TrEMBL record:
It comes from Blautia faecicola. InterPro entries: P-loop_NTPase, P-loop_TraG, T4SS_component. It comes from the Bacteria. This is DUF87 domain-containing protein. Gene3D superfamilies: 1.10.8.730, P-loop containing nucleotide triphosphate hydrolases. Residues 453-766 form the TraG P-loop domain. PANTHER family: SLR6007 PROTEIN, UNCHARACTERIZED PROTEIN YJGR-RELATED. Pfam families: P-loop_TraG (PF19044).
Length: 808
């Protein structure tokens, strides 16, 4: 994507001017602001107030050309949204991350559970991934706004109105995002980290109630300090073409000239430099009426010069074609500019582009400078060091929206938009689950699903794509990460048993010949907190009976009423029993030895007068007392291990759908028990998820789980090959709409198209799940969609655990 620059003659006429500056005498005087306010506003000089906003990144690099163009145009609208009396700045910083500190944020801490050999191996793999990626640098992007006003209260009102406009404008670029002003502590902490890259001073000056270091501005005031003392370095020294802050070397460079054509890749390439640096683009809008007058005056001046040249050519007898082509080119460019301003909503800005690079030594500084210059030559956009203006340039680059330089360039909205700050999104959260590497940036992906809009997830992938390995990898990570997690797996093909056993878990083998039983009528009375425990249990049993009927028919309304009545009847004694236990001080909320069974329901149906009741009894008879009575017994299995798998492979095809559903109820009861404890998270994985979507009632029940699991700290995940089963009904569609975490492995075209439409993904993004290698795909968390590569070394213990059977 490229842009057209304004004519050189107009640029020279209306460029910025030299600004005289008083030289500071001390380090504190060099920090360029006057005072700070509790609402995050910093007054840089008397009557000039600034506010800052963190910007979320957008996956601009992998967006298709038409989407890039849409983002480009919307960003231009964002630039135009600022009032003419407000200056603003786009600030990007690549900041170094202490390697040891960073590794501590992703490291799996040892625990007393016999699994530390796996944690150690995973830590080794993470160390290798970090070394190959860019996790030693983190990137932050900010927008800073500056307004001038003689009255503080009125300035705050103006900034408040700008808040809303910025939030609305940026949501057009990244739907669902929120842009709010940075707090004062955030801004001061940011400045402190810029001034103290060598770690010679610390920002914290107090401790919180838990004894953790924190910053308290009031505490600083109480001890006679100021905010500048909180951010100041131990010393600064400015030379002709570089400077030092503490022990860190730095240099300010500026964009000397904007070429006629410039690609948005220019900014991307600069921000990809693997060095600590800051980039600032300062915008000073020119009042539209004044800008139009200047352009008209320039047009009149050009016309007069051309007319005079033509007249002189005629008088002296030579062709008008010999007149300088530069005049005609300037006339054409100025005419185009006038039309753009009148018809295409183009505004004019004075734009100052600066870069500050840092290095631990002068040699590192020269290397970073060389890389910046190399990129500038690539795009014919020369970037040069400032001479004897290093301090002014540094202050103009700081995220304070100050510009005291004389290197302005006048650009239109479209030309200004070429400095688009968006490149590639990252997904990194401290102590999150490891999902591999970002295939674009090679950075480690660490994400905690509990931070999402909800905790629900889905994993899609065609046969052989590695979707089961992806699920096992997440399970493995969750188990090793914390003590407050319990994991359940419904395993239709016995794929997970070897891993579960190796990790010290429990495998419950269910079959028609098994002596292990799970009672689908178990019920935890804690759910009565919603006053609808029996209602949901009745809905569950209706769904279960519909599975028993088979896909050829659904349960009619009258039949549902009969089942509902019978369910309430058979639970009367159970609820009374549980009430007696509670009265005696017994904390048990689910007594599996007293719960009713399918046989109780069968007999209750037989006692009803309606012929429909007899028909329902006939349907469930084989499951209650016949050859398929596996689920007609009281539960005799314990599910207290950290990880539990229900192996239902040997139930047979006719019972597998029912087995999935019965195991789901057992997990639901355990989730309520765990959730009532207040600190235990229940993660459960349902493989062959599509089997439960073939029944309308079962889909409805699953939707209830997807809606209610969060309340009980439940983290459900469905694993399946195709999206078609999710499109069968409103309930099944709502399952995907209520899943804020989705992993996609290699998918068939129909499934790619379906997910692309549902999740509003581009064709460029979907290319990452078109014939993708096993272990590679896309991660979507409701806002961010990233391509990932999560292939473990084949000689690792982890690979042996998660690859124990062939992919289904």
């Amino acid at each position: 994507m490229s842009t057209l620059n304004i004519s050189d003659s107009l640029l020279k006429k209306f460029s910025g001017f030299v600004k005289k500056n008083k030289l500071p005498k001390t380090v504190l005087e060099s920090i360029p602001y006057e005072q700070v306010y509790d609402n995050g506003v910093i007054e840089t000089e008397p009557g000039t107030f600034t506010r800052a906003y963190l910007l979320e990144d957008v996956n601009f690099k992998i967006a298709p050309e038409e989407q890039q163009l849409a983002i480009f145009r919307t960003y231009g609208m964002f630039l135009n949204s600022f009032p003419e009396n407000a200056q603003f700045q786009i600030f990007i910083r690549n900041k170094p991350t202490d390697r040891r500190t960073f590794l501590n944020t992703i490291r799996f801490e040892p625990q007393k559970d016999g699994l530390n050999k796996y944690r150690q191996e995973l830590n080794t793999i993470l160390l290798d991934r970090v070394a190959k990626g860019r996790n030693n640098l983190s990137q932050e992007k900010m927008c800073v706004v500056s307004v001038k006003d003689d009255h503080v209260s009125h300035a705050m009102q103006v900034l408040d109105s700008i808040d809303n406009e910025i939030d609305a404008s940026l949501r057009r670029i990244l739907p669902g995002s929120r842009t709010v002003p940075m707090s004062l502590e955030e801004r001061l902490r940011n400045l402190q980290s810029i001034y103290n890259q060598d770690g010679s001073t610390v920002f914290e000056n107090s401790v919180d109630k838990d004894g953790n270091p924190t910053f308290d501005l009031q505490e600083m005031y109480n001890t006679g300090g100021t905010s500048k003392e909180a951010v100041a370095p131990c010393g600064m020294s400015f030379k002709g073409n570089h400077f030092t802050i503490g022990e860190t070397f730095a240099r300010t460079l500026y964009l000397q000239r904007v070429p006629t054509w410039l690609s948005t890749d220019f900014m991307n390439d600069l921000t990809d430099i693997p060095h600590s640096l800051m980039i600032s683009v300062n915008y000073n809008p020119i009042e539209q009426a004044a800008a139009l007058k200047k352009v008209r005056d320039h047009m009149l001046s050009l016309n007069a010069r051309i007319s005079e040249a033509q007249k002189k050519a005629g008088q002296e007898g030579y062709s008008t074609q010999l007149i300088s082509p530069e005049l005609y080119r300037s006339q054409e460019q100025t005419t185009t500019l006038m039309e753009d301003m009148v018809t295409r909503d183009q505004r004019l800005y004075y734009v100052t582009f600066t870069v500050v690079v840092f290095g631990e030594s002068l040699q590192q500084l020269e290397e970073a400078t060389r890389l910046v210059k190399s990129i500038s030559r690539k795009y014919n956009a020369p970037i040069r060091p400032l001479l004897y203006q290093q301090e002014v340039g540094f202050n103009s680059t700081l995220p304070l929206c100050i510009n005291k330089l004389y290197v302005d360039r006048m650009l239109t909205t479209e030309s200004s938009s070429i400095f688009l700050p968006y490149s590639s999104q990252e997904l990194f959260q401290k102590n999150g689950v490891y999902y591999g590497q970002n295939r674009i940036t090679k950075s480690v992906i660490m994400y905690n699903r509990l931070s999402g809009r909800n905790y629900n997830g889905l994993i899609f992938g065609e046969s052989g794509s590695g979707k089961s390995m992806a699920a096992k990898s997440e399970i493995y990570n969750v188990l090793l990460r914390g003590k407050n997690n319990q994991i359940f797996i419904i395993d239709p093909e016995n794929e997970y048993s070897p891993m579960v056993k190796a990790l010290g878990g429990e495998v419950i083998d269910l079959s028609t010949n098994s002596k292990k039983f799970v009672n689908p009528l178990d019920m935890d009375i804690n759910y009565a907190g919603d006053n609808d425990s029996l209602t949901m249990k009745a809905n569950y049993i209706i769904s279960m009976i519909e599975i028993m009927y088979g896909r050829e028919r659904t349960i009619e309304p009258k039949e549902k009423s009969i089942i509902d009545r019978c369910v309430k009847n058979i639970y009367i004694g159970y609820l009374q029993h549980m009430e007696q236990l509670r009265a005696s001080g017994n904390p048990v909320t689910c007594d599996k030895s007293a719960a009713p069974t399918l046989m109780n329901l069968y007999k209750e149906l037989q006692n009803q007068p309606e012929p429909e009741a007899k028909n329902i009894a006939d349907v469930i008879e084989i499951y209650a007392s016949g050859s398929l009575s596996t689920f007609s017994h009281r539960s005799n299995v314990e599910t207290n291990a950290p990880i539990v798998a229900y192996n239902i492979k040997d139930l047979g095809g006719g019972m597998k759908d029912l087995g999935l559903f019965v195991c789901l109820n057992d997990i639901w009861n355990k989730m309520i028990e765990n959730g009532s404890k207040g600190n235990v998270w229940t993660h459960f994985y349902i493989d062959e998820f599509y089997l439960l979507l073939r029944s309308k009632s079962a889909s409805s029940f699953l939707m209830e789980i997807w809606k209610r699991a969060r309340k009980w700290k439940g983290v459900p995940t469905g694993i399946m090959q195709n999206t078609e089963d999710l499109l069968r009904s409103v309930d099944s569609r709502n399952i995907i709409n209520n899943s804020s975490f989705i992993m996609m492995m290699s998918l068939a075209k129909f499934d790619r198209d379906t997910l692309g439409e549902l999740l509003q993904m581009s064709d460029a993004q979907l290319d990452y799940v078109n014939n993708a290698e096993p272990g590679c795909g896309l991660i979507y968390n409701g806002k961010t969609c990233l391509p990932f590569d999560n292939v473990y070394p084949r000689d690792s213990m982890i690979y042996q655990l998660i690859n124990t059977t062939a992919e289904n």
